[in-house]
Amino acid sequence: MGGTALALEVADLSAGYGPVRALRQVSLAVPEGAVVTVLGGNGAGKSTLLRAISRTLAFHGGAVTSGTVRFGGRALDGLAADRVVAAGVSQVPEGRQVFARMTVEDNLRAGALGGSGDRSAKAAALRRVHELFPVLADRARQPAGLLSGGEQQMLAVGRALMAGPRLLLLDEPSLGLAPLMAARIADTIREINAQGTAVLLVEQNAALALRLASEAYVLEVGEVTLSGPAAALAASDEVRRRYLGVVDEDAAADAADAATAHPALSRWEEATR
Ligand SMILES: Nc1ncnc2c1ncn2[C@@H]1O[C@H](COP(=O)(O)OP(=O)(O)O)[C@@H](O)[C@H]1O
Ligand SMILES: [Mg+2]
Questions:
Q1: The pTM is what?
Q2: Which parts of the sequence belong to the ABC transporter domain (predicted)?
Q3: Which ligand is nearest to the CA of 20?
Q4: Which of 139 and 259 is assigned the larger pLDDT?
């Protein structure tokens, strides 16, 4: 890949829940320090993908059936979930999943448990989280359940950062948030990335995700159907119609022109179905 170091490499990954096949031979890469997004509607397999990478699929009754996941050149296949965190990959699960009755402070401490760092690394991680999200310092002693939805999302991101990850897996961080709060979360994702953490962001909010990411993949019914530079996907007629809600004919024509100007887009036609 032109000398770009790959943080994460997913190759031919298939996964399911008992008889339900949720992912079919998904391959993707997150270069070191990049933001990569996976777009897809409800049930496309986005959460399954992140759970397969973080090795938490078994907690949901699922399993990886084939394929490999490598991080920093090392295979994560077969590791326990806490070992994946120690290897530098932290997940922010769908729906935040903060511990509502625990204080904000204790939620953050829980995030540090899986990390590989010593006391001073954890103190530095907490300072970083408080700088990114001052509200989490202000509300440190309050039960997390009293936070707003947006603040709970900040807490969920902060908790994941406490382990000092080199790669952050984000599962629909904008879901259920008002546009202004979603934009704030997007700003902090950008800032976290600028500080050197790679990000794999799965989203239904394609507009937000395509602004943040350099590379994008479209997942449909468990398969990657389209991938390429985020700018090329944002310009593609199909993505605009299906994920960006563009219906205007002229805009669609413009987008079709732009798409032909972006030959870097790769498409998987119905070949494997
Ligand atoms: N815990 C589970 N048990 C059984 N099936 C599941 C479970 N979680 C997800 N699925 C199924 O797997 C497929 C992919 O789901 P999911 O990864 O949650 O999609 P997304 O996150 O894109 O909405 C769907 O068909 C969904 O119904
Ligand atoms: Mg999901």
A1: 0.89
A2: 8-246
A3: 1
A4: 139
